[in-house]
Structures are given as C-alpha cells and as structure tokens.
Amino acid sequence: MNRKRIISTCLSVGMALSLGACGDTGDGDVGPGVETAGMALNIDLIGGSDVAGFRFTATPVDCDTGLPTGDPAMSAEESLEQVNLPGDNSTFEKKPYDPDSSHHFSDHFFTVAPGCYDIEATPITGDGDDSLDCATATLYNETVYDDTFNEFLLISQCRGVARTALDVIGTLNHPPEISLEIDKFMCAGAGVVACATASDPDGDPLEFTWEGREGECFEPEVISNTTDPETGEVTECVVIPSRRAKSLGYKVTVRDLAWENWCLTPIEDILPEQTGVDFDASESQASIKFKTHALADCTPAGMAFIGVTLGADLCVVDGKLKTDDSMGMKKSQATKLAKNAVDYVNPNLLGDPDPRILVVRDTVNNEDPYEDEYIKARLEAAGFTQVDLIDEPVGGLKRYQTISYSVIWFVNPGYPINNKKTYRTLTKFRELGGGVIISGDDANQNQDLQPPNWYNMETFSFMGFDDTATNDNPNGTYTCGYLTDQNQGKRYIVKFDAASPLASGMGDLTFPYGNDIDRNYALGLGETVGATTVGLYYPGKKECLVDPVTVMTTVPAGTVLPSP
Fold it and tell me: Looking at residue 72, what DSSP letter applies?
C-alpha cells in the first residue's frame, strides 16, 4: 500500500480514523457524515493543552490530480477517549509511537465509496472551537480500497506553551563547627598565635572574624589560612599581641557563605523569615570566646652565639645553594647545629617543638650574601616548618615585627650590630622570654663600641673581644703570620665541646674553617663554651694557638650580665 503520513517526533495528541469502503449506493453520491454536538469534558491531562476532542473530515479528491471532485466533505466531532492509545498497539500497519509511550486519542468511523480522499483531524476545545495549542493533521490523496478495512493514524502536534511555574524547594543549612588552639599565656609586650579550625557539615565556604572584647583595640594579623584537602577543614591562624600585663578577652567567629549578587555572603545575612522555632540568625554561625594572659615577670630566655658562618663559599648551582665542605662545616653538621641551637633557646620547647622562627639578615655588609638563605634551609631541613626570613629594616628591627615568634636568628656575617633600634628590640625580645641566636664570624667585634657601651656585643655572646692580641690580628684575618681570611689562606680547625647542647647528636665534632675568626674569650658569667679553635691545618704550626679561641657559646635562660 502506498500511504502518505504526517508523523511528529514529539509527544503529541493522536487520532485514529477508519474509513470503510462500501458498495454502490445507487446514484454514486457519498452519504453525509454524522456530526456530534458538544464534547465530553475529558481534556488533555498529559500535556495540559486546551484539546477536548477532534473534528474529523474526509474530502473526496481526484486520484490523479488530487483536486476535490465536488462531492461534499464528510465531517464529525469526537471527544477524547477515556483511555490512552498505547504505543505498542500491533494492529496499526505502521506504528510511529514508541512502545513505552501513551497518547490521548479520538476515533471515528466513516462509511465511504472506494476512491481517494483528503483526510483531516483537527483538535477542538470543549466548545467545539479549533484548538489554539494543537495543529490540524492532514493526509492528502489517500486511497480507500474496496472490500477492505482502511485505517489511518494521524498525529496532531501540540506546541510548547510558555507557562508560569512555581517550584518550591526546602533545604537545610547547618551551622559550621569550630575548635581553637592557643597558648593563652605570654609575656607583656609579646604575643601568641591563635589557630581556629572550622568545618561545615554542608561543605559551604567559610569566613573567619577575629575581634577583641572588653573595649580593647585589636587588629589581628592573619598569618595563614589553609584547607585540608582530605577533610575539608579550614584552619586560620592570627597573631594576638599583648600591650601590657593584663588579661584580655577575644572572640573568633566562623560563618558559612553562599552566593548573592555575584558575591560570597554570610548565609545568615540572606535568610528569609524563620518561624516555628525560637531562632536567632547568630545561631547559624559558630564562635568561641577566649582569654589571653600577659605576664609581667617573665624570665629572659636562653641565647646561642655562633662565631662562624654555617655555610662556606656559598654559591647557587642549578638553583640550589652549594657549600664547600673543605672550607667549613658539612651540611649535616650545619643542620644539626641549627636544630640544637633552636632547641636550646626555644622557650616553649616542651609545648611547641616547632616554634615560629624569624631569621633576620643584617643588610650592612654583604660579605656572605647567601648565609641567611642557607640558615633558613638548614632549619627547614631540621624539621622546623614555621621559618620566616626578612632583611633588617633600614630603621632597625621593630618590636611589633617580633610578636608571635619564639626564636629570632640574627645573621650578621660582617659587622657587629650597628643599629641601636635592632639592639634594643633583640634585648627586649629576650627579656620577654624569646630565644635569641646570633651568628657570623665577625659578629662579636666591638669596633667603635667601647665597654661598657650600652649596646656592647657581650650582651648576647657572653664573650669578650680580645683587641690586645699580639701574635696576630684580633679580627683573625691573620693567624701565626698566615692569611686566614676569605678562604684564600690557611684553615682553622674548630672543635665542638661534646658536653655542649650545641653538639647534641653530632657525629663529627670537628670541621675546617677557612675564614677569619674573632679573637674571643669566654667571660665566665654563666655561659657554656660550645666550640673552640684547636689549631691550623698545616704541620708544626699549632703552637701559636695554644690558647683556644672561643667560637660558640650558649647562655642559659635567666642569665644576664651584671650592670656595668
């Protein structure tokens, strides 16, 4: 059979039309169709259109030209059936619908003479008007054969109509959770680090707010904000300073955030009205109140003085710092020395084995330009993770720059401290319980500093600078008549004292040193000697260094020089 079809690929309202061929009616005219007045209220429930039924029309046409033959068209109206047409109906000759589909439909049976017809199915409303939502489906010049059942399936396509929809979704937002770590006790004028760790059950972004209470002016300095990739926990750390000996209250608040107007905004600020429970917007956040206690009677912390550089002939090769072991201590010795020095002066060793360390490079002399970086690298190699490096400010190191640090390592490779501001800051830092380390092979000189000058280097080293040495230069650039400077001459032999805390765990207690060493001597006022010179690296000339030169000292906590 040659059947022409109009078939839509979208969900639509369908109609089945059956045309039955009959014998001769006498005069050959086609009998009139039966019209149905009014539609049953079985409307389109699937697509929500205005369709309540179909108007079916069959118009005779010339089979060759397709033009109407002049015979009257037959028309009938049928309401939608109470049941849907299944897509897997096997009685249809051609089945355009998917087997899992289901469609509204109407059906009408015409009795007609054999021939050709234009067949229409027009969707109509309950009032009999043409539908505004669904189109008329037409098959042209379809052949109706004699002595057979002729069945046609037409598909009326319904357009998508823009309709207003209201979709209401209720969600639950849970407040964040927070915990706090802080060493609440500090020395007056010093400071501590507080770290808050927060998580959100819903995985929302988080925002921290730190504030002082009791009328205190408080400007927190955020020093870190990190997220654990496995747990999603966010940890933010701030420096909390003290300005005087007293107890102060603080508060940290964490809020969860959502997007509003392209900005992350605290969810509590965009909540709709909350009823049914006793609710306060602040309950959608998490906060902890805490106190810090600044003490006035702090004990001066320990100090370490290292009268040599930790690296020798430092240079950068392939982006890495290299040192010459033949002219100075090995990297392993330098790493162990750095760890031992920090452990000794760290005032919070038992409570904080990983203290915050500030390495300050004296910018007056550039004799050993990579020494500060090398020390930082050795500290990190020793396992310390909180090491910061700065240049000494032009106006000197300020006290506020030292707040929250447990240890300051002042790298002074060429001259003694020549800045009164830095001197005062380091002195006060130690008085407030901070550990101090000073290193450099010229760091104990007192050139132009006459004892008892108030910023004499003895304050930190507990070593005197012997400017009366007669057998060689007090600066140690010449020893026993030989050049011992700038790695251009003979080398010293330096030996750690096995009993010194600086030598703890040290496998090799000696190392060469090819640069100048100040002629220092221990004051004997409570310090312990960490290392001394024991000769030079050449045969038969050790007798000129019979009296060892003090190279390193450690000063116990609480030990101070007597007033001059």
Answer: P
